[in-house]
Each structure stands twice: as structure tokens, then as C-alpha cells.
Specification:
This protein is mostly beta strands and 510 residues long. The protein has a single domain, classed as Methylamine Dehydrogenase, Chain H, CATH 2.130.10.10. It is built from 3 helices and 35 strands. It has a 5-stranded antiparallel beta sheet with strand order 1-7-6-3-35, with no helix packed on it. The longest helix is centred in the N-terminal third of the chain and has 9 residues. Bound molecules: fe (ii) ion (FE2). Fe (ii) ion (FE2) binds next to strand 23.
Length: 510
């Protein structure tokens, strides 16, 4: 494996001006002072999402109900697993060392394992017994700057050609053995890249060709937007860099893949790097939401045959893409969008306050939305497909880059709480919604679609959802028949402990 290349993309970005939404950070041991009330008794269990699980597990889990006989393979999930060291606790749900949670299904049984990614950061901090390096939203007392330059490898898992990749948004991914879960090093997914590159945690695997599409930053000063396309065997087919057309560093987390081109959504979230470099603010506190500057889409042809196209769109915050596809000269791009990222940015954002056992602020619902891009006229419009409150949208994996009809999402009721306690299937053609709600006292994460090996359509498979149950303070893996989401789980894999929040999963069929 190539040696690890640390790349600071954010810290070298161009300084942007404008109002700061985040609060002033510091290099001390305590987050900013409290303002919102303590978690209500109904919500108290949510603190478990930000409580680490230092012990590593390997056991056959009990199963309520019957696991589908054709559900054979492994679900890899990744997320932060360690928030506390040496008497200090991370400030934000985003800040924890990557921990794989792996469930293997065979013969009606479920084997569950956890394993930390042995990153350079993890190993050094294990040895020191203390946090040594700043992360996205938490300073480290031993560091002068607040640049999150060390990967936690705790956002996404991807399996390609016998290698399990664990991505962060810093540098290149870590690699693990997908069977033993042993960390084997780091690797640049594209050896053809000239010069240091970093990759976003989200990648796309084309549903028809199996091509693997990655994006990130290239260069150390005002990094270009970088696109890599590998064929199914891992050979680089295309890599192209294009300057970011926005003035200033804009934060984005995910991207669209149409089967032919990448679409970046350059939302108006700007970074002011100087306070972060000086150690007076964290990365997250250096981001500001500036809706008056509008949003922008950038369409990039990885082959380089066509010039990049930028289009103005209304401001909308996006974490995650559902899917995108071409319809003639039109690009359809679906995602979950918020009017404002108030759950993420600001001193009382729920991602932060939950770590202090407080309710926090989250007033903007995540709606299922659509960009429709007309390429000849170079115009794009934004519409809402489904009101409600959603996150973690997915389509059946074989539809990636092709027309999808169905969206699967974690669903909730923002009038009651910011978190999601259900699973929904939305028909994007008709708007019809099928939904199952676990109800109060349950937190539901991303549903991962495991296709039936004999799949005939994009509802033929199972949804695998990590659920934290408040009453028992334990987690389970709920298995849904994607055709009948509203019927509830057909099986529940009961774990012996809680799981801290996880972000994303990958289904690897046996
Ligand atoms: Fe994500």
C-alpha cells in the first residue's frame, strides 16, 4: 500500500468573509456555555448516541422473528465509536474514532462484530491515553491549531475488490481486511492522480457498469474539485480537476452521479480558515451559512470532453444525495434538503448539545427535494418532492446513476423531536409514502438496501436499519421487507449493548 499522505485541504482554503454562524471555540477542555434545557426524560436515551463503546465485540446475536433465507452477506457500517479519553469528551456527534459494526448473515443467523479502525490518530491517542489531535468540532489541548488533519476513518465503509475502505473527509481512506477487519494501511483509490489528493467520504458505484466514482480536493491551496472514475476492477478510467467556481471554500458532503457526469452542489456554507488555523475556532465553528449568496451546481464531465457548467440555484443545505440520472438533456437529482443547517451550525445545534445532554436547536426539516437541470438552456430549478422530516436517503443500489422510482429514508416528526424514529418508502413518481414508525424512544439510522439476489425491481430486497431503543438502552438491527415497509421489521437482530451513532453502511452480498 502507498504511504499515507496527509493533506490539509480545508486549512489552506481561501478566506471568505461574512457572518459567522458558529460560536467562538477555544483550546480549553469545555464546550461553550449551556443555553437550552436538559434532555427531557423521553429524549434522555439519545445521549447514548454520543457515548463510546470501547470494548470490541464478536458474537452470534439473538434474532426475534425470522431472517429471510436469501439474505446472505455482510452489512458493514461505520461511525464514531469513541468519544471519551483521559477524562475529556468530544463536543460533537461528528467527532469520534471510526468503529466498524459488522453483521454477517448466513443460514438464518447473524454474527455481530465491532472493530476500531487502527488509524495513526487512534494508535497515538491510545498510547497517550489522551486526545492529541483536533477533530471537526473539538479542539485538542495539545494542538496549537484546530485543523482536523488526522483521519478518524469513521464515516463510510466501501468494499472493492477484496478491500474494505474506511473513509473520512481527510486525506485518503484507510484499508482493512473485510473478513478479519484488521487495519492494513491506507491507499489512494486512484494511483493515476498526480500530486496529493483527498477524498470525500461519499462515493458512488454505478448501478449498471460497476464503475466507482470518487470526488475530493486536489492541491494544497484553494483545492480544485477533483473527480476520479475507476472501472469495476479498480483501473483508473478518468480523473479530472476543475477550479471551484465559488469564491471561498464551500463545504459539501455528498455529490450526484448521473451515469455520465458528476454534479457538485456548492451550497453557501463558507469556511473562514484563519480562526481555525490560529486555534480560536474549530472547523465546524469556522463554517457559516450565507443563504444570501445562493447555491450553485457544477456539472463536471469526468472525461474532460465537455467544459464544466455552473448554474445558480436557491440556497438549500444538503447532507445526502438520493440518486441522479439523465433523461435526455435533463438531469434529475434528488436529495434531502434543509432550509438551513441549524441542527449542525451554531452553539445550540443538536449535534453539539446532545453531547452535553441538552435538547438544542433543530427547526428546519429535511425534505425530499429535486434539482431538475435543463442542460441546453443552462437552467436549474428546485422543488420539494415530499414534505416531512427525513435523512439518509437511499435508492436500490442497482439504480445508481439510472432512473429510480423509490426513495428509502429514515423518517421522523420534527414537531416532536429532531431525530428519526421510522423508516419510509416514497414513490417519487406519485408521491405515495409507506412508513413504519417505531415511535418515541427509538432512534433510527440509515436504511441500507440489500437486494434480493433474484431481484426483479427496486423494491425487491431488504432494508437493514440500526435502531437504538430507549427503554433497554440497547441497539438492534431491524430487517424490513422493502416491498412492505409499513408492516414493520420481519426480524430484529438484538444486540447486547448500545451502539453510538453510525452514519453509513455497505451491503456486500455473499
Ligand atoms: Fe454522509
Amino acid at each position: 500500500m502507498p504511504t499515507r499522505r496527509l493533506l490539509l485541504t480545508a486549512g489552506a482554503a481561501t478566506l471568505s468573509t461574512g457572518a459567522i454562524v458558529g460560536s467562538m471555540g477555544c483550546s480549553g477542555a469545555s464546550p461553550p456555555a449551556a443555553a437550552t434545557p436538559a434532555l427531557s426524560p423521553e429524549h434522555a436515551f439519545l445521549a447514548k448516541l454520543g457515548q463510546g463503546l470501547s470494548e470490541e465485540f464478536d458474537y452470534l446475536a439473538e434474532v426475534d422473528g425470522r431472517l429471510p433465507g436469501r439474505l446472505s452477506g455482510t452489512l458493514y457500517r461505520n461511525g464514531p465509536g469513541l468519544f471519551e479519553r483521559g477524562g475529556t469528551k468530544k463536543w460533537n456527534l461528528l467527532d469520534g474514532d471510526g468503529m466498524l459494526r459488522v453483521t454477517s448473515f448466513a443460514d438464518g443467523q447473524a454474527r455481530f462484530r465491532t472493530r476500531f479502525v487502527r488509524t495513526a490518530k487512534y494508535d497515538a491517542e491510545q498510547k497517550a491515553g489522551a486526545f492529541l489531535y483536533p477533530t471537526w468540532a473539538t479542539p485538542a489541548s495539545g494542538s496549537f491549531t484546530n485543523i482536523p488533519s488526522r483521519s478518524q476513518a469513521g464515516i463510510t465503509p466501501v468494499v472493492k475488490n477484496g478491500v474494505l475502505f474506511a473513509f473520512d473527509e481527510v486525506s485518503v481512506p484507510y484499508t482493512l481486511d473485510p473478513l478479519s477487519l484488521a487495519t492494513t494501511g491506507t491507499a489512494d483509490p486512484c494511483e493515476a492522480v498526480d500530486g496529493p489528493a483527498s477524498y470525500k467520504a461519499h462515493t458512488k458505484t454505478d448501478g449498471e457498469t460497476g464503475r466507482w466514482v470518487l470526488v475530493g480536493g486536489r492541491g494544497q491551496r484553494n483545492p480544485d474539485l477533483h473527480v476520479v472514475v475507476n472501472d469495476a476492477s479498480g483501473k483508473a478510467l478518468a480523473h479530472v480537476s476543475t477550479p471551484n467556481p465559488r469564491s471561498g471554500y464551500t463545504y459539501y458532503h455528498d455529490f450526484f452521479w448521473t451515469g455520465r457526469e458528476v454534479v457538485f452542489h456548492l451550497q453557501p456554507a463558507f469556511l473562514s480558515p484563519v480562526p481555525m488555523l490560529l486555534g480560536t475556532r474549530t472547523f465546524v465553528d469556522s463554517l457559516s451559512w450565507q443563504p444570501d449568496k445562493g447555491g450553485m451546481l457544477l456539472v463536471v464531465d469526468p472525461s474532460g470532453a465537455r467544459a464544466s457548467l455552473s448554474l445558480d440555484v436557491p440556497p438549500v443545505w444538503m447532507w445526502h444525495v438520493l440518486n441522479a440520472y439523465r433523461s435526455g438533456d435533463t438531469i434529475v437529482a434528488d436529495f434531502v434538503g434543509y432550509d438551513a443547517p441549524d441542527h449542525f451550525l451554531g452553539p445550540e445545534a443538536t449535534f453539539r448539545t446532545i453531547m452535553q445532554g441538552r435538547e438544542g436547536v433543530a427547526n428546519s426539516p429535511g425534505k425530499l427535494r429535486r434539482f431538475t437541470i435543463d442542460l441546453p438552456s443552462k437552467r436549474a430549478r428546485l422543488e420539494t418532492i415530499a414534505d416531512g422530516h427525513y435523512e439518509f436517503p437511499i435508492a436500490a443500489p442497482q439504480q445508481t446513476g439510472r432512473k429510480h422510482r423509490y426513495a428509502y429514508l429514515a423518517s421522523g416528526d420534527l414537531s416532536r423531536s429532531w431525530y428519526h424514529d421510522g423508516v419510509a418508502r416514497i414513490d417519487t413518481d406519485s408521491g405515495q409514502r409507506r412508513e413504519f414508525r417505531f415511535g418515541p424512544g427509538h432512534y433510527v439510522g440509515e436504511p441500507v438496501f440489500a437486494p434480493n439476489p433474484r431481484a426483479h425491481d427496486e423494491t425487491d430486497g431488504w432494508l437493514l436499519c440500526e435502531v437504538l431503543e430507549g427503554k433497554s438502552e440497547r441497539s438492534m438491527l431491524a430487517v424490513f421487507d422493502a416491498r412492505r415497509v409499513e408492516d414493520g421489521p420481519v426480524a430484529r437482530v438484538q444486540l447486547r449493548h448500545h451502539l453510538p451513532i453510525s452514519f453509513h453502511g455497505w451491503w456486500q452480498a455473499a
